[in-house]
Amino acid sequence: MKDIQIKKLIGAEQKRQKKVINLIASENYVSDDVLDALGSELTNKYAEGYPGKRYYGGNEIVDKIEELCKERALKLFGLNMTDWHVNVQALSGSPANLAVYLGVLGATHVKSVPSADKSVPPTTIAAPKIMGMSLDQGGHLTHGQKVTASGKFWTQVPYGVDKTTEVLDYDQLRETAVREKPAIIVCGYTAYPRIIDWVRMREVADAAGSILMVDMSHIAGLVAGGVYPSPFPFADIVTTTTHKTLRGPRAALIFVKRDTRELDKKIDKAVFPGLQGGPHMNQVAAVAVALREAIQPKFKKYARQVIKNAATLANELMKRGWRIISNGTDSHLVLIDTWQGGVKNSLGAGAVSGKDASEKLEKDGIIVNKNAIPFDTRPPFDPSGIRLGTAAETTRGKKERDFKKIAEKIDKILKEA
Ligand SMILES: Cc1ncc(COP(=O)(O)O)c(C=O)c1O
Fold first, then answer.
1. Is 320 among the residues known to form the active site?
2. Distance (Å) from CA 213 to ligand 1 centroid
3. Domain total of the chain
4. Residue 344, pLDDT score
5. Same-domain check for residues 257 and 346
6. Per-residue DSSP letters for 153-196?
7. Which of 16, 118, 182, 395 is most buried (most C-beta within 10 Å)?
């Protein structure tokens, strides 16, 4: 590379990544093949539209790449083209979710309807409802939070976990859904360590007459690896980022059940031309590479190890007195209540906030993120907990004995005055 400044900075980031213990639950390390595809000449190509229906010439090769990516996405999750459609063009998880809402719900209510009588103010049509988990309980911003387009154009009906068990409160959820009748119920979260009961979610959606959308961004690699129940037999729509447990480049997939509602066509139109122009074909190719990797038997072994490592991390921390949200984990994710559940050290130091905990750990080379815990009373920028994940370090070959040492180190650092 001739650009010395950027070359130096990339080199510095490579060194940083090698040096640290990376416990960011949403990060992973892609293969050299994925990097090759990302850095390829495919970035030069404009391909607005879909295979066979593009607005530019010269697409015979990228059409094949996009079709291959779709084929592999369906194969990885055991789906067939007759029952499921997949869109591989969304640039990342947030735009993918937005495309679903735009395609399925539309945004007609945003315009007010003028009345014939000028003295009567225009009527505004009520925004359709998206039922999503609250941010502090583990939901994602794009599941209807006011600060995002998902909460500005549509109305969020929040739900959450039981205060005592910190596990999804399905009874409450059902009651709210039946009363509010949301157009869409979104499940699949950003900081929820437990298995989601897809059967109950389907039952709730049916009782409320709602579309069931699963955002499996965090757990996609675990579903692909067969260590977390698949949402496909129950969902109408499944979105996922490709860069977390799935270990691909930054991108997203939108799977849509094919039926008379034709949601697949509506969502395709929302991705392009609704929200985006030309797809990033280097990214689509890199997703295809990652999907092929995830189809290999080796990936199943990886997914199993991710789960074992997270269980070890949670158990070792609990042994040392730390309060783990929901008392453990079924996934790659461990949430620690460092504030209320902080362990007093020998010097009598008290609880540590999520921000302080993440900063202390980073000084010693352990990278985590501060995170709200259910019913958090502290502000989002300095919440009561931290979120840890095992996907990235498992890619680097770490096993249970390594995570035992990591837990010991975290315990020691956080107990230091
Ligand atoms: C559940 C969930 N959905 C969507 C996203 C958004 O993905 P992106 O950052 O690619 O927009 C995230 C990101 O962390 C997530 O956890």
1. no
2. 14
3. 2
4. 57
5. no
6. SSEEEEE-B-TTT-SB-HHHHHHHHHHH--SEEEE--SS--SPP
7. 182
Range of the structural domain that residue 315 is part of: 300-415
pTM of the model: 0.95
Angle at CA 274, nearest 5°, toward 148 and 185? 50
Same domain, 264 and 365: no
Catalytic residue among 27, 48, 180, 356: 48
Atom index in ligand 1 nearest the CA of residue 189 equals 1
Q: How far is the CA of 288 from the centre of ligand 1 (A)?
A: 19
Q: Average per-residue pLDDT in the chain? A: 94
Q: Same structural domain for residues 139 and 92?
A: yes
Query: pLDDT class for 349, splitting at 50, 70, 90?
Result: very low
Report which ligand 1 atom has the smallest distance to the Cα of 250. 10
pLDDT given for residue 108 in this prediction = 76
Centroid of ligand 1 to alpha carbon of 205 (angstroms)? 23
Task: Look at residue 212 and tell me if it is in a domain.
Answer: yes
pLDDT tens for 230-261 read: 999 999 999 999 999 999 999 999 999 999 99
Sign of the alpha-carbon dihedral angle for 173, 201, 262, 55: positive
Interval between CA 252 and ligand 1 midpoint (Å): 9
Q: Is 250 a catalytic residue?
A: yes
Q: Is 257 in the pocket of ligand 1 (CB under 6 A)?
A: no
248 and 386 part of one domain = no
Rounded to an integer, the average pLDDT of 86-109 is: 95
Judge if the beta carbon of residue 140 lies within 6 A of ligand 1. Answer: yes
∠187-263-65 over CA atoms, to 5°?
A: 90
Sign of CA dihedral 54, 60, 63, 65: negative
> C-alpha angle with apex 103: 151 to 25, nearest 5 degrees?
55
Residue type, 296: Q
pLDDT, residue 126, reads 83
Q: How far is the CA of 114 from the centre of ligand 1 (A)?
A: 38
Residue located nearest, by CA, to atom 9 of ligand 1: 93
pLDDT in tens, 128-165: 999 999 998 999 999 999 999 999 999 999 999 999 99
Ligand 1, atom 4, residue with closest C-alpha:
93
Query: What does the alpha-carbon distance between residue 140 and residue 127 come to, in Å, rounded to a whole number?
Result: 20
Q: Which of 190, 241, 245, 394 is catalytic?
A: 241
Annotated catalytic, 48? Answer: yes
Give the domain CATH number at 161: 3.40.640.10
